[in-house]
Write a structure and sequence with these properties.
Elements: E1 11-24, E2 41-44, E3 49-54, E4 63-73, H1 84-93, E5 99-103, E6 108-113, H2 117-126, E7 130-133
Parallel strand pairs: 1-7
Antiparallel strand pairs: 1-3, 1-4, 2-3, 4-6, 5-6
């Protein structure tokens, strides 16, 4: 186990959602997205409108990147707590694995590729993070 004493170690919950990242023209109306359920996030910049939503949402996007799983940082995480996202992403990217991050007022969500989920979870556990299952889903890497 490799721990950095300046990086806070938090517990994470693996959510059951299977997510996609959707890219739209920045002028797309939010009404055109329809009803979203489960975990979802919408971010608009001058260059794009990005939506993270369930794979089953079947949104008519310009681009779609499916195959993501979600780890929820068990919060609330205080705004003044530094290094949470850096510690999480470092643990995963050190293994050459992709990661996508979302943040809310209370927490952070770490999106991991489904095909490398076991490797990503193992990297996080090896870095000292506790990963909890959601509901009846099992998280067993041994």
């Amino acid at each position: 186990m490799t721990l950095n004493p300046t990086t806070p170690v938090v517990s994470l919950t693996l959510l059951p959602d299977r997510l996609s990242v959707y890219r739209f023209d920045p002028l797309t109306s939010l009404a055109d997205l329809g009803q979203l359920s489960g975990v979802w996030s919408i971010t608009r910049t001058q260059k794009e409108l990005s939506v993270v939503a369930e794979e089953s949402a079947c949104l008519s996007a310009d681009q779609v990147d499916p195959g993501w799983r979600c780890l929820y940082v068990d919060g609330p995480v205080p705004f003044g707590l530094a290094g949470v996202v850096a510690g999480l992403t470092t643990a995963v990217t050190r293994q050459g694995l992709p990661v996508f991050v979302l943040s809310t007022f209370d927490s952070d969500l770490l999106l991991l590729r489904g095909e490398s989920l076991t490797q990503s979870l193992q990297a996080l556990q090896d870095s000292g993070y506790l990963i909890r299952p959601h509901g009846s889903e099992r998280v067993n890497l041994d």
